[in-house]
Amino acid sequence: MRRPPGPPERPPRSPVAAAAVLSATLTAGLWGQELVDTFAFGGQLDALGIQPRDPDSLGHVLSAPFLHAGFAHLAANTVPLAVLAFMGALRGAGRFLLATLLIVVVGGGLVWLLGRGGSTHLGASELVFGYIAYLLGVGWYERTPVAVGMAALVLVLYGGALWGVLPGNPLVSWEAHLFGFLAGLLAAALLHRRRPQPRAAR
C-alpha cells in the first residue's frame, strides 16, 4: 500500500534572504520601540540606559543598545546599523545572533564598569561599532576572499567612524563605541578563529 505523498519540502532560505530578514527585524524593532516610548511613555524608557556603577542599572546593559534619545538619535544610527547587521548576518544567522549577544553583554558590561559616572549611556551605536569590529575581525581570522573583501568594504564605508572610540563630544558615549568595538573583536575571535587541527594518527 503506497503512502500518500507528504507536503512538498520548502526550499531552504538563501543566506541573503535570511540576513535581510534579520537586519529588517532589528531595524523595525528599534523604530517600533522608539514610537512606543515617545507616544505611550513620553520618553521615560530612556531611564533604562546604563548608569555606570549604579547597581540598579546593571540589568540595563541588556536594554541600553535598543533605546534612543529621540528620533534624530535613532535616525543617525539606522542606516549603518541596517547595513552592518545585514553584512554580519551573511556570515551565518546563528553566529550573528551570538555576536550580537556578546556585544550587548560584554560591551555594555564594560560601559557599566568603566563609563563616566553621572551619565546615561544608550543607543545602537554600541552595536554599530561592535559590528564594524566583528566584520573586521572575521576578515582577519578567516582570511578568505569573501571575508577579506567584506572587511575592506566595511573600512571603506565606515572606517572614518572609528575616531568615535576616542573622547570627544561629551554628549556622545565614546565609551559605548570603544567597548562595543572591543566586544565585536572578541566575538570574531571566539566565533571565527581557526582552531588547530589535530594531527592524524600515524
Present the secondary structure layout.
Layout: H1 15-40, H2 71-89, H3 93-114, H4 125-142, H5 145-158, H6 174-192
Helix pairs in contact: 1-2, 2-4, 3-4, 3-6, 4-5, 4-6
Subcellular location: Membrane
Membrane topology: Multi-pass membrane protein
EC number: 3.4.21.105
Mind explaining what this structure looks like?
One of its GO terms (biological process) is proteolysis. The chain crosses the membrane at residues 66-89, 96-115, 121-141, 148-166, 172-192. It is a multi-pass membrane protein. With 202 residues, this protein is mostly helical. The protein has one domain: Rhomboid-like fold (Up-down Bundle), CATH 1.20.1540.10. Helices cover 58% and strands 0% of the residues. The protein is built from 6 helices and no strands. Helix 4 packs antiparallel against helix 5 (145-158). The longest helix has 26 residues, at 15-40. The radius of gyration is 19 Å and the shape is globular.
